[in-house]
Design a protein that fits this description.
The protein contains eight helices and five strands. It is an alpha/beta fold. The chain has one domain: P-loop containing nucleotide triphosphate hydrolases (Rossmann fold, 3-Layer(aba) Sandwich), CATH 3.40.50.
């Protein structure tokens, strides 16, 4: 793309169900750059699904894999866009690492919208898998209250029920 902006490393952060993976894929395609999903990269490196890591070894072990995998990608020479897990910026020095390696964008989607999205999906989300539709919104709001101080440190925040590719692309121009 002759007039495309120079993209280094871009990290999408936000609550589970905020659209990080969907938007990162779409933006990467629009910009003809590499897309990575941090959880999928952890699964490749660990040779286990995220849910298996959580159930067999616990969250702390998963967070070790997460930090190690994130450090690897932050040290790459090439640019990319990455969808992180919802908790990635909240543990260890992950947020500082992402901020120093590239641009961090917080997708700020209301808890009610996220709850609606997740309740319609049959996705395995380790921290939300035991929630009923009635308790989902409360759990999302709790996660938000625990993580918002990290999310607000992002270079950019994009808010709304339906965040689209255009809102992300506008940050690159």
């Amino acid at each position: 793309m002759a007039n495309s902006p120079k993209i280094s490393k871009t990290f999408l952060i936000g609550l589970p169900g905020s659209g990080k993976t969907t938007l990162a894929k779409q933006v990467a395609e629009s910009l003809s750059i590499a897309f990575f999903d941090l959880d999928k990269e952890i699964e490749k490196a660990a040779s286990k699904k995220v849910e298996e890591i959580f159930s067999e070894k616990g969250e702390a072990h998963f967070r070790e894999w997460e930090s190690k995998t994130l450090k690897y990608f932050c040290n790459l020479d090439s640019g990319f866009i990455m969808a992180t897990g919802g908790g990635a910026p909240c543990f260890g020095d992950n947020l500082d690492l992402m901020k120093s390696a590239g641009v961090v964008i917080f997708l700020d989607v209301p808890a009610k919208e996220i709850s609606n999205r997740i309740s319609k999906q049959s996705l395995n989300r380790p921290l939300l898998k035991h929630e009923t539709p009635d308790s989902m919104k409360d759990r999302i709001e709790f996660l938000r209250s625990q993580r918002i101080s990290f999310y607000r440190q992002a270079h950019h925040t994009v808010s709304g029920n339906e965040i689209g590719v255009k809102e992300i692309m506008d940050l690159f121009s």
